[in-house]
Amino acid sequence: MNEENDLPGQLRELLEDQRLAVISTRTGDQPYSNLICFVASNDLRYILFATTRATRKYANLMKESQIALLVDNRSHGLVDPFRALALTALGKAVELKGTESAQALGIYIARHPHMQEFVSSPSTALFRMNVEKYILVRRFQDVMELQVTL
Amino acid sequence: MSMAIEFQDVGDEQRELVGGKAFSLCIMAREGLPVPAGICITTEAYIRYLDDTGLRVKILRELNRKRFEDMRWEEMWDTSLRIRNMFLKTPMPASLSVSLKHDLPGFADGRAIAVRSSAPGEDSSKASFAGLHDSYLNIHGMDALLEHIRLVWASLWSDAALLYRRELGLDVESSSMAVVVQEIVPGSRSGVVFGINPNDPAQSVVEAVYGLNEGLVGGQVEPDRWIIERAGGRIVSHHSPLRDRFVLLAEEGVKTEPLPPDKIQAAPLADCEVRDVQRMVLRGEAIFGGPQDMEWTYDGDRLFLLQSRPITTVGETSTDDQRPWYKSLHRTFENLKELRSRIEEELIPQMLRDADRLAVRSLASLNEAELVGEIEERALIYKKWQDIYREEFIPLAHGIRLFGMVYNDAVRPSDPFEFMDLLGATAMVSLERNRALEDLASAVRNDASLRDALGRGVIPESFSERFEVFIMRFGDLFESLPGANRYGERLIPFVLELAGRKPLEERGTGSDVDDRREVFLSHFTGKKRQEAEEQLDLGRASYRLRDNDNMYIGRVKAQLVKALDELGRRKEQGVFVPRPVAWSGDVASVIGELTRTHSPLTADAEANGFSTRARQIVGQPAGPGLATGTARIVMDAADAFRFKAGEVMVCDAVDPTMTFVVPLAAAIVERRGGMLIHGSIIAREYGIPCVTGVPDATSRIRTGDTLTVDGYLGIVIIERDDS
Q1: Fewest C-beta atoms under 10 Å: which of B43, B45, B328, B622?
Q2: Does B700 touch chain A (CB under 8 A)?
Q3: What average pLDDT does range B575-596 have in this prediction?
């Protein structure tokens, strides 16, 4: 298949190559952004991330579960605007508890072994983002939308 | 480090710094071959220019607008012109020009010099791509020298170079260009020599013309040709052409003139000179360790070597590779002038005669076998004109491009396509048809009772007469459209739709064009002004014919469509046996292309648990402006007649027979790309935003989507109500 038209393939490659994403939450009308470590599920429907409960981000998530994530492969060079991919994921974040959390923890640590201590701490919450839509920007202005279908 | 190195000072390790052409010249000069004095401007100068002016990012932006794989040759030419304009409009930083002025005084004392491209990697035995980059002759003085160095740099990104980008390894971050600045030898006889004849490795080939080599290399002067045995130098054969012209130095650049009578009968070289030229190429072969292809010139009886490059084995080229044809579309002014006369004076009258001859034949009286025979004849006539269109008419469009370069070099506009506004004031059949339609619409707009009558399906006699005149004049253009049967009935609602909106004014007429023309011509004086006027005239003819030739060939096509419709109608009525006719050969391919249904995909792909759709697509900005409207995919006449005022026309590849819709459109979006395609031309005429070269436009956009068309940046934004 033409790589250009294999959008899920491009998404998967980007999400596997990158470890960090920008998360956007909000309090009232005020948007708020942070860097987080993430891991995406094989079918690209879910994205796991963690945050300590004392953060503003956690407080925001408790009030408003609708979030956006930005993942990109920019290299901070001249060619970035034309060659970098920027992927925005839109969806709802759900705090994982019990068995679900234990299973997700294994997946998260396998991707980010150096975060084991952080993510295993009782003060840290593990979230699953249920992705509703991806928006992929290529070559600066070419924008494709991928709606997750049931 | 100095950015200019004289030939004799270039070391073996500096090959990449001075480029392939310069390095060969330096080696030959070092070995004592007669090379005119010269100096190399290294790739360092190019790199510094790009980095200090910020041009590198701008080139990156131009080249990354869309994927190369999705670009047509025309788009590459547009891209190349935009980049060339950037180099024209961006002066050298002071530090760079001071440095070069310091190094080049010996070549800027007013004598005639040549400024030649010398790309690293070019002319090596692995890659020989002659004619991809530009060289300039007969340049005088420092300012002109520095300017032409910039133009040679710009030609690193020529359309031909973009076509062969993979083979060249063309890359904004790593590619660069060196320049050779060299004394001009005012040669009276010049030519090329191939150390090995491609058809017989035991022979060499010498080609010679009177005057400068540009006549031979540019293809406008046919050379004398000698075949010589490599061993012993015996001349095997001599071919004499019709000698009638030669190229010589003009006040600036070069010019072509008729050959004086005494030279017409005499070959440019004596046999002993042919052997001298061959000896030189064999010496080059010994120096470089492989057979060479050299350019040379005689100044009096003194032989000079101008260029040497290895003869490369031409690999098998795929018959699907269209690039040599695209490259061949570059024509000289002289060649285009001849082509224009042939097209205007011979071909178009012949084509119209063919159309008229077919139009008067009665189809109704033919039996089935006769009608099938008639269709076959019409298909072959149409095929003949399609072939001529490709071989003769399309190349004439280069006259537009040639004028664009002349205009941009003189005026240096911010918009590299401003020159099109000057070409637009010309008699285009498509615009005449649209004006006639607008006249009909205007009558309806101003007469409420007429409007009411037409709305009720009644055509008052006074209007009927006007309508018939329109049909007489332009009817066969509609007949050539697929799905346009009963177009007369559909035209009335279309005219009503046109009458419902305020008339769209054409640009490109009146005093502003005269003003632009004067501004353009004010950059020239004396003979140069006359040449500029001729360039403008040729540009206008190319522009007009580009649109009109489609209309004329449409008339031939209409006769084929008419005969096919007649056959279909009689089969439908049961007059003929209703089984399909088995067409064969060229007839089958012509009819197949004609009856191919264009069915746009209606949905974006569902893939791996996702439904995907384009939200924003990037094409080429082809008509400035911003507009929002409802999309309508226009693939055939039926779509066109359904078009409503204020909609955005989305099409695959529109030709002038379909552009009657444009006055209703808020904007145009087209899959086929280029500034000189019909969609772009007519959008510019009406000042409508237009984006072309939108990949898969008709499958990624649906009729009913809300589109915002950004004709400044070449972006189409798609909003769809998913509910």
Answers
A1: B328
A2: no
A3: 83
Rounded to whole angstroms, the Cα distance separating B714 from B712 reads 6
Is the distance from CB of B242 to CB of B228 less than 8 angstroms?
no
pLDDT tens digits along A51-88? 999 999 999 999 999 999 999 999 888 778 888 999 99
Quote ipTM for the complex. Answer: 0.86
**Fold for domain A7-147?**
Pnp Oxidase; Chain A (2.30.110)
Chain A environment of B614 (Cβ under 8 Å): 143-145
The topology (CATH level 3) of B4-183 is Dna Ligase; domain 1 (3.30.1490)
For domain B189-310, the CATH superfamily is: ATP-grasp fold, B domain (3.30.470.20)
- Pick B615's closest partner by Cβ from A4, A140, A143: A143
Alpha-carbon span B352 to B349, nearest angstrom: 5
Q: What is the pLDDT of residues B40-57, one digit of tens each?
A: 999 999 999 999 999 998
Q: Which residue has the higher pLDDT, B70 or B443?
A: B443
Whether B632 contacts B664, CB under 8 Å: no
Looking at domain B606-719, which CATH architecture does it have? 3-Layer(bba) Sandwich (3.50)
What are the residues whose beta carbons fall under 8 Å from the beta carbon of B520, sequence distance 6 or more? B407, B410, B411, B422, B532, B536
B206-210, B426-430, B694-698, range with the lowest pLDDT: B426-430
Q: Which residues on chain A are in Cβ contact (under 8 Å) with B618?
A: 139-142
Are the folds of B4-183 and B189-310 the same?
no
> What is the C-alpha to C-alpha distance for residues B664 and B682, in angstroms, rounded to an integer?
12
Q: Is B616 on the interface with A (CB under 8 A)?
A: yes
CB pairs under 8 A between A and B: 74
Q: Which residue of A has its CA nearest to B608?
A: A8
**pLDDT of B595 higher than 50:** yes
Evaluate if residue B185 carries a pLDDT over 70: yes
Binary contact (B616, A81; C-beta < 8 A): no
Whether residues B61 and A81 touch (CB distance < 8 A) is answered with yes
Which DSSP letter does residue B251 get? S
Chain B contacts of A79, Cβ < 8 Å? 60, 64, 172-173
CB contact under 8 A, B609 and A149: yes
Alpha carbons within 13 angstroms on the beta-carbon side of residue B288 total 30
Cross-chain residue pair A144–B615, CB shorter than 8 Å: yes
